[in-house]
Amino acid sequence: MAVAEDSLADIRALVNAQERQLNELKARLARLEAVAATGLKVGSKEDSKVGAVTGATKPVVSPASGAMAWAGASPQFSQPESESQFKFRGKFQTEIMATRSDIETTDYGRASEIRRVRLGAQGAFSPSLDYVAELDFGGDKIGYEDIFVRYRMSDHTAIRLGHHEASVSLDDETSDSNHSFLERSLHNSLSLGRSVGLGFETQGQRWSLNAGLFGQSQLDTEVGESEGWKAATRLMWTPLHNSNHTWHLGAASYYVSLGEEDYRVSARPESHQLAALFDTGEHAANDVKYVGLEAAFQHHSLLFQAEFGEQTVDYTQLDESRFVTGYAQAAWLISGEQRNYDRSRGKFGGVVPATSWGEGGKGALELALRSSHMDLVSGDISGGKGSTLSVGLNWYPKSFLRLSANWVHFEIDNSLEVLPQGYATHKGNAFAVRSQVTW
């Protein structure tokens, strides 16, 4: 009798285990169907911000007329009949910074701030037509982020219209939520950022192309002023891409016709609460040209990437100037995770912990090192020449939660154009910590 009872108990345990596995498979399937309904690629900049790739989606209700599911920390709604989908998105970042100057007469201060508060939504009207709309409430005024609609002409070709990024750099294309550092490199100061325009993206078996035509940035627009325009293109080649290794190579260029606006290049030394110690000042210019090269290699949990760019500015009343930037960085996910790669936009996604903190795991841990250089001294311009060395440590307790610490050492001279903080030479260290929640 005891033997029979033991056998029955074993059978019940086996049935319960299989039932749990079936429920997990159902949850995974619901997640994949929800992501597919958006028309967004898993790991894309839009998708990774809300955490749709950061954990299994848990179905909450699924009536005949619609369904709601949790994608990471965000609720997601869908209509199976019309194949439409909607979900909230956003992020919240707070930061504290302290500095130490290596020059006796200079003090770079201490500060705290709400770095970003972004709120928005994304979704799809159909499998071929999706949208994103997001605003930034950080700082003194509301700013525009991605606000566009995208039409997918095929599985490999799409166009987007609205306010969005001009793709000219791996560093800039990677979401600020997914960077291994708190701030992008000095190289990012030569990127075009977001503005209203028409974008085109397509890809083949091992290559992809992003191009676009854009107007002036919304922050610079004034009533009654003739607006300039921008044309940008970025070509990427992926000679190797599998589950363990990725080789990424790219080249980008852009042309900017300035219209009636002045031109300026400025950069903080990779800490947002420092002053813009690199600064060319504002000067009238006719146009701006740029060429850049980029490379990245991922080997399991190690990611190496580097970029170099040169910008030529045709000033109206000053000599032509050439500005140069570049960086090299390495990031190691100590806990063994690996970033996903999006070929359509040529970028790496966020970190998804193999085991979440509080659920039997400790989350993911990442260590990163970066060296950046910038030279804004050319022609009649002395906007600063120098470098930074940054060390970053990131802990991802859960897919939507991140705690980070950065140390930045900077050395700059010939910053004569604007004389930030009253000096032309700067040398010091900044230490910052940040908390981040995305949904």
Automatic annotation (TrEMBL):
It holds the Pfam family Porin_O_P. Residues 1-35 form a coiled coil. InterPro entries: Porin_dom_sf (IPR023614), Porin_O/P (IPR010870). It comes from the Bacteria. Keywords: Coiled coil. Signal peptide: none annotated. This is Porin. It comes from Arenicella chitinivorans.
